[in-house]
Amino acid sequence: MKVLSFDTVIFLVIGIVVILLASTYNISQALAAFSNINLFYIFLAAVAWVLFIFSRFMPWSFVLRRLKMKVPFIKSMSMMIPFFGLAFIPSSVGQLLPLQHLEEFKKESRFLSLGILLSLNSTYLLSIIAMAMITAIFVSNLVLYIVAIFAILYFFVSMLKLSLFYKAIDRYVVKPFKLKKRRFIKNVTKYLKQLEKNKSIFSQKDIITQILLFLPPLLLEASILYFALVALNQSISFLSAVFIFSFSFSIGVLLFFFPGAIGPADASIITLLIISGVPGAIAVSADIILRFFNTFLTILASYGVFLFSRRYMWSKKTV
User: Fold this and answer.
1) How far apart are CA 143 and CA 50, in angstroms?
2) Residue 65: how many CA atoms within 13 Å on its side-chain side?
3) 204-231 and 57-66 are packed helices; what angle lies between their axes, rounded to 10 degrees?
4) Do 260 and 295 touch, CB atoms closer than 8 A?
5) Has residue 238 got a pLDDT over 90?
């Protein structure tokens, strides 16, 4: 029996979600909402999306500077956009593809790739939870639960200095079973050792800095949902839109492992919008607009930049 690939499962899940939405709400009403859409606010959503794409350069650049990598702005940008956009590939393998080209600027960069991935992804999650926590103070009673989640995750990430973890694995697993002779274990050990040497990006000061640097891009991303709702003639506060976005994606990332939290986050967004008084069909339409920008266009732009950079900009030695 042929085992379904992860991508096939994801598309099946998306299909099931779409069918459920279509059966729950009159899909014709959701589509009809687009006939009365205010294009000016869709234009503002597009501007917010462009700013969102480029604003993620701030945490990216910060991490590279902490690792003492001097990468020219254009080449650094050509790696940053695919890094974040290709996160939709299962297990974040797509994020490692642009990182391999850092080897052009630092020989041992291949050992730092995992550290960069862990650092940026973990602080991104903490940042979106922090944003949910801040906005929850004004719009929801869920703040205590979000504070607890944030505190637990912050403690976990701040412990990613890897010293104890690396030494424990080496002492109780690798050496007793003489696993260093195996090539795969040897390579993993090298990665962990290099991560342990470059653990500065996991210091509490740097984690807090990255969390703060991720807030502007996340606010811009959340503003896409706000503009979508206003374009659909829905009266909702900006803080409420930001809370719905950040809380939904926090839940989607924490409880599920689908790329981009596709499915769980959408269900949460639609549910919270309905609770906020937005008609179900309009909530579906707003979520479609959000996904068009922060998922479809983001993936399209990331692949485009990746293919162009690989062909014309990056060193052929690292391709």
Assistant:
1) 31
2) 10
3) 170
4) yes
5) yes
pLDDT exceeds 50 at position 57: yes
On the question of pLDDT at 3 being above 50, the answer is no
Question: What's the DSSP call for residue 89?
Answer: S
167 vs 163, 164, 185, 189, 227, CA distance in Å? 6, 5, 14, 10, 50
Q: In this structure, what token pair is assigned to residue 126?
A: 């903490």
Q: Which is nearest to 14 in space by CA: 193, 187, 262?
A: 262
Distance separating alpha carbons of residues 256 and 263, to the nearest angstrom:
9
Tell me the C-alpha distance between 83 and 124, whole Å: 13
User: 35-39, 88-92, 267-271, 281-285: lowest mean pLDDT where?
Assistant: 88-92
Q: What is the distance between the alpha carbons of residues 188 and 95, in angstroms, rounded to a whole number?
A: 18
Q: Which residues contact 51 (CB under 8 A, 6 or more apart)?
A: 220
Q: E strand or H helix at 94, and its extent?
A: helix 93-99
User: Of 169, 151, 160, which is closest to residue 202 (Cα–Cα)?
Assistant: 160
Tell me the CA end-to-end span of the chain in Å, nearest whole number: 36
Distance of alpha carbon 74 from alpha carbon 59, whole angstroms? 16
Structure confidence at residue 151 as a pLDDT band (50, 70, 90) = low
**CA 116-119-124 angle, 5° bins:** 120
**What would the mean pLDDT of 6-25 be, rounded to a whole number?**
54
Amino acid at 305: V
pLDDT, tens digit, 9 for 90 and up, residues 294-315: 988 998 899 899 889 888 877 6
Neighbours of 318 (CB within 10 A): 13
pTM: 0.77
Other Cβ atoms within 10 Å of 311 Cβ, number:
10
Cα separation values, 151 from 5, 145, 165, 251, Å: 36, 10, 21, 15
7 in Cβ contact with 90 (< 8 Å): yes
